[in-house]
Amino acid sequence: MSFFRYFILFPVFAFTFQFDQVIGSEPKFERQVIDAKISIGYGLSIGDVDGDKKLDILLADKSQIVWYRNGDWKRFVMTENLNPRVGTRFLDNVCIASRDLDGDGKVEVAVGANWNPGETTDTEKSGSVHYLIRPEDPTGIWGSVKMDAHEPTVHRMHWMKVAEKEYRLLVLPLHGRGNRGGQGDPVRLLAYVPGKKPEEGNWGSELVDASFHVTHNFDLITFSKETGEEVIILGGKEGIKGIRYSAKETGESPWKSEHMVKNPLSKGVGEVRAYRGNVDDGLITAIEPFHGNELVVYSPPATSGEEPTRTVLDDSLNQGHALGLADVLGTGQLQVIVGWRGPNKDGKVGIRMYEKEEKGWKSHTLDDNGIACEDLKLSDLNGDGKLDVIAAGRATKNVVIYWNRGSQESN
Q1: What is the DSSP-derived secondary structure letter of residue 200?
Q2: DSSP letters along 5-29, please?
Q3: What is the model's pTM?
Q4: Which of 27, 286, 300, 333 is the most exposed place for a label (fewest CB within 10 A)?
Q5: Neighbour tally for 181: CB within 10 Å
Q6: How far is 135 from 145, CA to CA, in rounded Å?
Q7: 67: burial class by Cβ within 10 Å (0-12, 13-18, 19+)?
Q8: What is the tens place of the pLDDT at every residue in 218-243?
Q9: Other beta carbons within 10 Å of 183
Q10: Can you tell me the distance from the alpha carbon of 260 to that of 218, in angstroms, rounded to the nearest whole number?
């Protein structure tokens, strides 16, 4: 069975949707800037840092890792300048992952740093992976332990659940070793295996995949509410593939993968997101090509022998760099949220939402030239049952919450 067919046929979740979006209405979001002085805002993560059962915002900024406390949105520095200077400067932080691994209601945090995309060979000068050590007071400075082994150009990371109470830290580089212009060794997606005392740095590693040349991002999809099984959706130069973890003791690698969307159908993927549930099951959205101008969706094929259907929602982006896919509006349909960081033909940056309708997709503007979007996340920050949009802006140097206020009648 092909991976795309597996993606469709695996038992679905039981979700209950509120159909409170009025036909002919416009989504209403309230914009709140919680920080207007960041440096770059490479990566966002959402999780409960202080254990108050409220979701906080974590940010990998240029030289600092910070978090914003839910409620007053006060900013706290967790750590900074994680690596020695290279030449006259510290190399930047570039990614962050947070997840509650031990069930205590507080997230564990990992960080990717030493961002140097032009150096694809020397691991001392490019890339680093750190596990942050929680202090007694989470508003204070966190310690860190650095992984001994890593690839150059570390770029994105996620915590993945592979079994009951068992997790891996997935770390994705931008390039393969020695890569120039997309040529050279393939990108090595690694899974770090925490030891019994992760703070001591006794982590192993596993090779998850090494088949793409140039990657940018990946997503995790939960397939089963009962087992918590998660699947990787990986985007890169050669398209999109799905990767599963199998814990069977066969002597082979536990990581199994299959190409889902290949070139030339795909133009090479920057951002990628996918959905697993009981609406639009198996839908994938992507920004193409790398730092590209096209926002596309892939609908699953009718049979395993067919290609998915590619639909272009927008071809006017300039450096599309942030993506979300969920039922944000509570309509029982999925919406795609996209952010771009370079001024488009109208000289504007921003965030748009695309809503699926009977005759196609309708666009809504969430932010018109107020954020040069580097990353975005979807999360219910105030517990009202609606997904809010959280975004970080590069050139605009801001972190913004777009509070989901439901809908209002359009004129």
Answers
A1: G
A2: HHHHHSPPP-------PPTTEEEEE
A3: 0.92
A4: 333
A5: 8
A6: 13
A7: buried
A8: 999 987 667 778 999 999 999 999 99
A9: 10
A10: 14
